[in-house]
Every structure is written in structure tokens, then in C-alpha cells.
Amino acid sequence: MHKPAVIWDVDGTLVDTGELHFDAWARLAREMNLPFTRDDFAATFGRRNPEIIRYLFGDRYNEVEIAAIGERKEGYYRGEAQRGVSLLPGVKELLDGFRERGIPQAIGSSAPRGNLELILDLTGSRGYFTGVVAMEDTQRGKPDPQVFLTAAAKLGANPKHCLVFEDAVAGVQAAKAGGMKCIAVRFVGHHSEESLRQAGADRVVASLGEVTVEEALALLDQ
Question: Residue 99, Cβ neighbours under 10 Å: how many?
């Protein structure tokens, strides 16, 4: 019998940090006298900073400048996140349930490692995860499957036996491109149910409180 494994996206899936990220990007854009809208945010949510910056601001910046802009934005974000971040509904129950069954779990995120470390500390969830894959561990962002394939490798798991929790279209596409099952959650509401289904999600839910460990693992048998 093949051992299942679980991979979690973070922003919008494990925690709701969307408004903190929006405010940080908006502040950065204002300081740079550049436009930034809700549509821009929705179109780039879940992607790596270098890709977001090129999408928003074009090719006007080199790699060193892009890295500095990204770190400036993340400094604004982390400053606000320090005030407190909580796990989304249903998440802790799933984390506990998978751990009780001996199923390894990892983080697969487009966020910088510093952000992930902060979230894990603020939510007290670090002990659930065997591996953490961050922006620095990849060269290609979602919808490329690299982040999830890297996480599966850290867990010693066959991608075909991995279940991904995601909230973004690009993340769902990445999971499916990696040959994995995917449950998409709409709690933060950045993407419609239809768009997540079209991206290939095996199940779409309004909240992870709707999902049991048994239901999640049953997807891997389909």
C-alpha cells in the first residue's frame, strides 16, 4: 500500500493573510508612484514575488532591484502580521487528524521563507510539518508544479499519492500538473468555484471545516 502525504499552501489556505498582503503591495505601489488595484492583486495572488513584480511593473527593474522591492514589500507585510494571525476554520482539525494517522505533511508555498517561518510561529503549527518549501527553494512559480514536487520529495512521497490543499487557480493548476489530488478552499474568496473547478480541483469547498480526514484521503483512492 502506498503511503499518502499532504501538502499545504499557506496564504488563503492555512491562514487568511490576504488583506495584509494587499495593504503591503498597495503601500509599496503608492511609494513608487505606480498603480495597484484589487484586480492586480487577484491576478497575482499565490505567485512568487519576482513574477508578481514583473506582472505589475513590467521589465523596468533588474534582478537585484526586484529582490529589493520584494523584500521591502515583505517587510511591510511581516510588520502587520506580527499583530496576530490565526489558522482558518477546519485547518487544525485536519492537521491533527493527519498527524494522528501518521501521514506526513509539508508546506508548499510561493511565499518567502521569512514569511512562512513567521506564520508557523504565530500559529504554533510548526510541529505538524516535516518539510517547508518556500520561494527560495524554487526557480519557477505556480502554476508550474515545482513547489509541490519539491515538497513531495522532502516527504519521500510519490506525487500520485499526494493531496494538496490550495485556494488559488495557479496553485490548483500546479498541483494537477504535478499529478496530485487537490482540494480547493474558497474561504478568503479570491477565486470563484467555477474557476477553481476549471483549474482541475478535485473538490471545492467554502471552508475546510466541511472536509474530514477520511473524505480527504478517499480522494487519493479515486
Answer: 16
User: Are 43 and 116 spatial neighbours (Cβ–Cβ below 8 Å)?
Assistant: no
Whether the pTM exceeds 0.90: the reply is: no
Q: Are both 126 and 200 inside the same structural domain?
A: yes
Beta strands, E only, 109-216: 131-133, 162-166, 181-185, 203-205
Question: Residue 134's domain spans which residues?
Answer: 5-16+86-221
- In one-letter notation, the amino acid at residue 78 is R
The CA distance from 162 to 3, in Å, is 9
| DSSP string across 15-81 | B--HHHHHHHHHHHHHHTT----HHHHHHHTTS-HHHHHHHHHTT-S-HHHHHHHHHHHHHHHHHHH
- Candidates 164, 167, 16, 10; CA nearest to 84 is 16
| Number of domains into which the chain is organized | 2
pLDDT, one tens digit per residue, over 55-91 is: 988 898 999 999 999 999 999 988 888 887 889 999 9
The reply to whether 96 and 72 lie within a common domain is no
